[in-house]
Every structure is written in structure tokens, then in C-alpha cells.
Amino acid sequence: MIVDARGVSRVFSMPAGPVTAVREVTLQIRDGDHIAVRGPSGCGKSTLLHMLGCVETQTSGTLLFDGQDVSRLSDARRSLLRLRHIGFVFQRFFLLPMLTARENVELPMSEAGLPRAARQQRVRELLEYVGLAARADHRPSQLSGGEMQRVAIARALANGPRLLLADEPTGELDETTGAQIAALLDRVNQSGTALVIVTHDPALANRASRVLTMRDGQIESEQVA
Amino acid sequence: MRLGVIAWLMAILLPWPPATASAQDATPPDVLVSRHLAEAEDLRVGSVIRLALDATGTKAREFRVAGIYEPTPDPSRLGQVPRSVRLHLPDLLDMTRPLDVPAGAEYVASVNVALVDPADAEQFARDVNARLPGVLAQPSGEAAGSAGPFRVLERFHLAIAVVTIVAATVFLLALTIMLVDERRETVGVLRLIGLPVRRILVQILLEGVLVASVGAAFGLVLALLSEQLINLFFQWRYDTALVFVRITRDVALTCVAIAVPLGASATVVASWALLRRGGLRLARR
User: Which of A33, A171, A174, B40 stands 20 to 30 A from B95 (CA)?
Assistant: First the structure.
């Protein structure tokens, strides 16, 4: 079991009063799972994803990552958890604009303390894996949207995470490019990495083995393929 | 110099016809004239001049210009062009002694003593006062109260410096917050990747120290250039050798000691304010 969330809620304090983004959600994620989370805007999909990725901590309930209670971990420990075990892919890619594709992918490995030779070897493998070996020395501004998302996926896979979290990964891409990215994510999942995708795109959601539908911060239904 | 002691006199140069052959037979005593006087009267070494106590020619005597000197700059006489002559003490006494005072009846009321280390002045004055009853020795800074205006000026400079540093700190902090905010997306991505807050703060601190050090070095170079320009301008403006600005080693070290920690601290404070927000909120503009 990678993630074991039991009755987790997340309440945000707002000037107009507290807002409950996620309410009493219970969810387990195992190695190799492929989960899609769907639902209308503002239903709490992204907040749930951020809690699963240890970016946000729950207000109530218990969330165990690899058996560790995330709410009891320090910022440094949660950061280390993200660095070593969780990969993120976002709609807007979030690549560092001053670094090349190679350097963007290398960054998490560098922070994890991987030796230089091993890093370079791994960067080559990952860029080949996402089909961008020829664009290794290009900066994000020199890449198309689909290419930037491939680099972002390669970066997310840099330290061999057990869990890959994707928030609308095809949201800014055209249909063809989106399908290519979806196929790439399928391939990542088939290699054993658990994948959780938040998406509005039915085609992308239908690729998952479990589809969760959220409404008002709660999981309304779960379909298993 | 005959006695090795030079006195000075605010001289009155009388108009004088060119020296005659008989006058040249007896070599007149030597004097030194200030550069300003030499320039104003077109005097050169070897010129013969006539000095008197007043414009009517009282006790007028001839002297030969043996040298031209640069007067010791005196801040309290800024703006005055020193047209002065230095005479040997016997010549000065001859000229200035009243007619009814016999030679040798002169007395010295005060003596200025220059110490190798001015910091010894207090101790030196205590020693002299203890050993020579009837003699009053005191550090020159306390003597005539002439340093008063400069002390006020020094305090004024200190006040300006404090206000400048406070204002610069506020400006620097605001600037740093803007610069750090420019990098919020980068910081947010680093947080999402898994870099802990401390790691990012250390990185930013190092950058802050580097930028502050380069800034301090640039500031010192600018100050040294300004020092030259300001001194050149005011020395030209007031025709003086006074040094108006001096960047000493202590001043430079004080500036660096204030600037570098201040710059680094401003960077860390600005970064800390930013890093308190979640990585995702940082990455999403």
C-alpha cells in the first residue's frame, strides 16, 4: 500500500468563513494502480491530489504514505518524501525556464544526491523514454507544449517515484498531443508506477482502471474497469 | 634657515621699484611666501620683496624669497586665500617689536607640540602638568574650542548616515521582496519537487551574500571615484589642499560590515515571507 487515506478532510480558512474543499474521503492507492479523479470544477479534486502528494496536509482524518502519518512529518521529511517517492505533472508544466530540458530532469536527482555519472545516464534514459533525446539542450521556451509536458513527465520520473500525480496533464494540449501524453502516462503506469490523474477529459479518465467521481468535496462514486 | 624656526606674518607687500645695484650688495634675509601670494604677486624664488607692518611702510624691510610653500590647509579658514609670509623668528621680532620694548624682552605664551601618536595627547598633557608647575598643557582639540563646529558637523554626518542606512534598508527590503517575488514560480517548483525550505533558504542566503558582497565592492569603487572627484572639485573651487572626503580603511570596513549582513538579511527575510506560502500557491501565479 502506498497511500492509505481514511476520512481525510481539508478546510481552508477564508475571510468569508471556512471552506471545506475535501470532506471525509477514504482512499487506498496500491503499487501499479491507475486512478482517474473526475468531477466539476471546485469539487476538491486538486486539493485531494495535493494531499495525496503531501503538498497539503489534511485538517482531519488520517493519511498514511508508505505507512507514515503525513500530518506528523516535518516539512523537511515531507519534502524528502516528495523528492524520493512522488512525481508531479501539472497542466502548466512548471519547468524552470532558465534550465535546459536535460537540467530540468537532472535537478531532482541532483537534490537526491545521485552521483553525476549516474544522473547523466538516467537523464539520457528518461529523455529517450519520453522521446526527447534530441531536444535535451533546449530550454522550455524552445519547446512545444507537448514537448514541455514530456520533459515534465521525465522530471517527475527522475527519482523512480512509486506514485505519479498528474493534475490535468493534457489540459493545455491539443487533442493529438494530449493523446500522446496520455499514452506516455499509460506506459509509465504499466512499468509499475501508481498513477493518479485529475482530469476533466473523459478519454483520459477512461484509460484508468478506477475512476473516482467527486462532488462537493466527497467521492460520489467509484467505477472499476 | 638661520635659526631653524620659522614664524609667519600676514604680510603687507609694499610697491617697490626694481632693486638697485647698491641694494643688491647686502643680501636681504630669506622668507618663504605662500603659493597663493606668489601666484597673486608673480613672485619666484630669488625675488626681492619689501615687507612692512602697515600700508604706510612702517618698519619696511627687504627680504629675498627663498621658497614658496603650500600652506597647511585649515578647515576653519575655508574660502580665505592665505597670502602669508614666513620669516625667521629674529626677523619677525625685529619687525613686530614695539619701539619701547628692548630686544630680548619677548616671551612665549604658548607652544604647539605635535606628537607622533595623537592618541598620546591626554597622557602627555597629564605628564607635563604634573612635572611643570605653572604650565598648562591640554590636547589641542580642547584648547580653543575650535573643534566645536567640527564636532557638530561630525554628529550631523552621523545622523545623516543613520537616516541613510535606515532608508536604504527599507528600500533594499522592498527591492528584495520584489526580486524574490519574481522567482516565486521557480521557488514553488523547487518546493513541489521536494526541496525543503531550509535548503532553499540557504541557497538564497548564499546568493544574497554574493550579491551584497559584489554590491559592497561596487559601492566602494564608486566611493573611491567620488572621493577623487569631490576633492578635485572643491580643492579647485576653494584653491586649497584641504581633503574634503577621505575613504579610510575603517570607513570601508564599516560599510562592508553593514552592507553585506544587511543585504543577506533582507534577502532571507523576503524569502522567508515567500516560503511561508505553500509550494503550489507559489507556482501558481
Answer: B40
pLDDT at B174: 86
Work out how many domains chain B is built from and give that number: 2
CB contact under 8 A, A88 and B198: no
Q: The sheet that has B61-69: what strands, in order across it? A: B6-9, B85-88, B30-34, B61-69, B48-52, B12-13
| Cα Rg, chain B, nearest whole Å | 32
Q: Examine the fold and report which residue of B48, B83, B118 is the final residue of a domain before the chain moves on.
A: B118
Position B9 scores a pLDDT of 46
> What would the pLDDT profile of B238-253 be if each residue is shown by its tens digit?
888 888 888 899 989 9
> pTM (2 decimals)?
0.66
| pLDDT at res. B145 | 53
Instruction: Determine, for residues A82 and B186 on separate chains, whether the beta-carbon distance falls below 8 Å.
Output: no
Mark which of B118, B133, B155 sits at the end of a domain.
B118
Please indicate, yes or no, if residue B129 is contained in any of the structural domains: no
- Pair (B99, B29) in one structural domain: yes
Give the minimum alpha-carbon distance from A101 to chain B in angstroms, rounded to a whole number.
15
Q: What is the DSSP letter of B181?
A: H
Closest residue in chain B to residue A155, using alpha carbons only: B193
Distance of CA B205 to the CA centre of its chain: 37
Full residue range of the structural domain in which residue B242 is found = 144-283
Same domain flag for B158 and B86: no
Mutate to test the interface with B, among A49, A50, A79, A162 (most CBs of B within 10 A): A79
Q: Give dist(CA B191, CA B194) in Å, integer.
A: 5
Measured between CA atoms, the residue of chain A closest to residue B188 is A94
CATH number of the domain where residue A94 is located? 3.40.50.300
- Closest-CA residue in chain B for A47? B280
Convert the pLDDT of each residue in A52-81 to its tens digit.
999 888 999 999 999 999 999 998 899 999
Range of the domain at A164: 3-224
Show residues of chain A in contact with B280, CB under 8 Å: 50, 55-56
Give domain status of residue B3, yes or no.
Answer: yes
Q: DSSP E strands: which ranges in B113-156?
A: none
- In angstroms, the separation between the Cα of residue A50 and the nearest Cα of chain B is 8
